[in-house]
Design goal:
The complex is a heterodimer of chains A (about 110) and B (about 230). Chain A is mainly α and about 110 residues long. Chain A is built from six helices and no strands. In chain B, helix 1 (about 15-45) packs antiparallel against helix 2. Chain B: Belongs to the cytochrome c oxidase subunit 2 family.
Chain lengths: ~110, ~230
């Protein structure tokens, strides 16, 4: 009952963000920020194309697991991209204030 | 946990810490040998009536005491680098826990599934129950499953702090605006204590960390009860 196999969660379920080779080092700030951006970009693109936003949920789960709650101030899957951004750009020290401008200018 | 009159490191709770302890023993032995040798030679120098007033050079011994320290340094560097790379190995965590340092307490967030977060304050000395550890106990411990790799993400909401648990070989700075990653992998269940390791104001000494490593079933029940 105490062996490692019994401890592992059942396969196939969401566990936690996997190792991301783009961010192999100790500083995971960019990992959180990148997934946050990717989620909102995905939402924007899917909504613009009138498609289902379900594939964007992966990015949401990753940044939700990695980013401290105070950095995202409770971004919800259904929140519009502008909602959380002006309140709290990630980390408070990033040029996240320009996030709205970035999203508008992001490649479509 | 630390105990009175402790001289060495705390018992290892993770494989990395076991490696670090072995490395520490190895390096400390080299240090003791060199120090004893030097002390012995000094003693000899100070307690002899023999003199040699015409020393010009000493090529042989100069060669030896140049080569030998280089060899000793290599003998220290190789295990050190081995452990350094071992600490950086890719592992696939099953859980992510975030901790934010505040003045003067830690807060913990488990957001893989539901949003579970809580603050962890030190229990003041006047409120301790008999048998509890002074300046080390907290009101809400960090409950984690044992024998599984867990990703810890450490940051701060104000000044610099540092999240340290010596028996797991962990010490990671908590820096505002930065998210530092560490990996916890415990060999056994139990309570593991640590203290803030970066000066952060008047109560820097009074914001400890307590990990409660338990089996997975208990961890699942606990996290359900806490949400």
């Amino acid at each position: 009952m105490l062996d490692v196999e019994a401890q592992m969660p059942p396969p196939g379920e969401w566990k936690t963000p996997p190792f991301d080779p783009r961010f192999p080092n100790q500083n995971q700030t960019r990992n959180c920020y990148q997934n946050f951006l990717d989620y909102h970009r995905c939402l924007k693109t899917m909504n613009r194309r009138g498609k289902d936003t379900q594939p964007c949920e992966y990015y949401f789960r990753v940044f939700h697991s990695l980013c401290p709650i105070s950095w995202t101030l409770g971004s919800l899957p259904s929140a519009s991209p502008g909602a959380a951004l002006d309140r709290a750009d990630p980390a408070g020290n990033f040029p996240g204030q320009n996030l709205t401008a970035q999203l508008s200018a992001a490649p479509q | 946990m630390a105990y009175p009159s402790q001289l060495g490191l705390q018992d290892a709770t993770s494989p990395i810490m076991e490696e670090l302890m072995n490395f520490h023993d190895h390096t400390l032995m080299i240090v003791f040998l060199i120090s004893s040798l030097v002390l012995y030679v000094i003693t000899l120098m100070l307690t002899t009536k023999l003199t040699h007033t015409s020393t010009m050079d000493a090529q042989e011994v100069e060669t030896i005491w140049t080569i030998l320290p280089a060899v000793i340094l290599i003998l220290i560097a190789l295990p050190s680098l081995r452990i350094l790379y071992m600490m950086d190995e890719i592992n696939n965590p099953v859980l992510t826990v975030k901790t934010m340092g505040h003045q003067w307490y830690w807060s913990y967030e488990y957001t893989d599934y539901e949003d579970l977060w809580f603050d962890s304050y030190m229990i003041p000395t006047t409120d301790l129950k008999p048998g509890e550890l002074r300046l080390l106990e907290v009101d809400n411990r960090v409950v984690l499953p044992m024998e599984l790799p867990i990703r810890m993400l450490i940051s701060s909401e104000d000044v610099l702090h540092s999240w340290a648990v010596p028996s797991l070989g962990l010490k990671t700075d908590a820096i505002k605006g930065r998210l530092n990653q560490a990996t916890i992998s415990s060999n056994r269940p139990g309570l593991f204590y640590g203290q803030c390791s970066e000066i952060c104001g008047s109560n820097h000494s009074f914001m400890p960390i307590v990990l409660e490593l338990v089996n997975l079933k208990y961890f699942e029940n606990w996290s359900v009860s806490m949400v």
